[in-house]
Design a protein that fits this description.
With 87 residues, the protein is an alpha+beta fold. It has one domain. Helices cover 38% and strands 21% of the residues. The protein has a 3-stranded antiparallel β-sheet. Helix 1 packs antiparallel against helix 2. The radius of gyration is 12 Å and the shape is globular.
Length: 87
C-alpha cells in the first residue's frame, strides 16, 4: 500500500508542473484527489497553501493536521501556491 502511495505521488509530481501554469488551484486539487482515490486511498487531505508554507494548512495552526508534515503534490496559480497531501 505504501509503495502504491509513493508511486501515485511520484506520478502526480511528474504531470502537475505543466498544469500549474494555467489551472486554478481548486480544479487541480479535484483532479489530484480523483487520481489518489482511483488508487484506492480513501483517508487523506489535500490543502492549498502559499508556496513554502507546506508545514501549515490553510486552516491555521489550530488545525490538528497543521503540525503533520505533508508532501507537495502539485503547484498552481503560476507556482505561487502548492497542494499538500497528508494522510
Amino acid at each position: 500500500m505504501k509503495r502504491m502511495m509513493v508511486t501515485a505521488a511520484a506520478t502526480l509530481l511528474l504531470i502537475t508542473p505543466a498544469a500549474a501554469k494555467t489551472k486554478p488551484c481548486e480544479e487541480l486539487k479535484s483532479e489530484i484527489e480523483a487520481k489518489i482515490k482511483k488508487h484506492g486511498v480513501q483517508t487523506f487531505t489535500l490543502d492549498i497553501v502559499a508556496k513554502g508554507e507546506a508545514a501549515t494548512s490553510e486552516k491555521g495552526d489550530a488545525s490538528k493536521d497543521a503540525a503533520k508534515p505533508g508532501k507537495v503534490v502539485g503547484s498552481c496559480e503560476g507556482g505561487t501556491k502548492q497542494i499538500i497531501y497528508r494522510k
